[in-house]
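Design a sequence for this backbone.
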């Protein structure tokens, strides 16, 4: 229904952003809401996908059309819902996901929240050889957010990152496992999330 929404970014939270357009605040769930932080209180375009189910009506948002198309491909795989697809996109390194699918690397795919061996096998069956048509030459830098200029307090950024990781489906135990290696860093929220995801996917 909505290809994209252009408006002012009013709020960034662990699970979603709020984009204001003509007096209406749209709640948009994204893979990594903090990757939109540089647009706070500024006009921006968010590509959207409207998910409709009997018990839910939700908007999901993306930085690019390519990201949105990959999300749609992922949720069409049996066993992967919108939340699971967001967790996969949040890794910030889709080339790893694509390589895993192309090389039938189930051991990598099962590291994502909610992806078991059966779902990993289904991803390979459904998507292998079928993603290059979406973004032929775009995989290496897809979803890579630019470094944020804002200097957030490190402790606050880490707290926000932890909330975002839990919102993606990672358990308290999984987050606590990588927490010690994050505490010595001085990063933005987005940076903490990406670093944590790299460690969680190792």
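Sequence:
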């Amino acid at each position: 229904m909505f290809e994209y929404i252009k408006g002012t970014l009013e709020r960034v939270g662990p699970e979603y952003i709020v984009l204001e357009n003509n007096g209406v605040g749209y709640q948009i769930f994204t893979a990594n809401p903090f990757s939109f932080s540089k647009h706070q209180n500024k006009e921006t375009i968010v590509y959207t996908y409207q998910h409709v189910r009997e018990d839910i009506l939700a908007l999901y948002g993306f930085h690019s059309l390519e990201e949105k198309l990959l999300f749609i491909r992922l949720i069409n795989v049996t066993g992967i819902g919108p939340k699971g697809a967001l967790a996969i996109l949040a890794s910030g390194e889709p080339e790893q996901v694509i390589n895993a699918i192309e090389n039938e690397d189930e051991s990598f795919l099962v590291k994502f929240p909610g992806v078991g061996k059966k779902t990993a096998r289904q991803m390979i069956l459904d998507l292998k050889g079928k993603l290059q048509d979406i973004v032929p030459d775009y995989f290496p830098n897809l979803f890579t957010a630019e470094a944020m200029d804002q200097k957030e307090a490190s402790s606050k950024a880490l707290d926000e990152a932890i909330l975002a990781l839990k919102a993606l489906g990672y358990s308290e135990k999984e987050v606590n496992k990588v927490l010690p290696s994050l505490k010595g860093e001085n990063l933005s929220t987005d940076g903490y999330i990406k670093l944590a995801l790299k460690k969680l996917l190792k």
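The helical segments are 65-75, 82-89, 94-102, 106-109, 117-127, 154-167, 172-183, 189-200.
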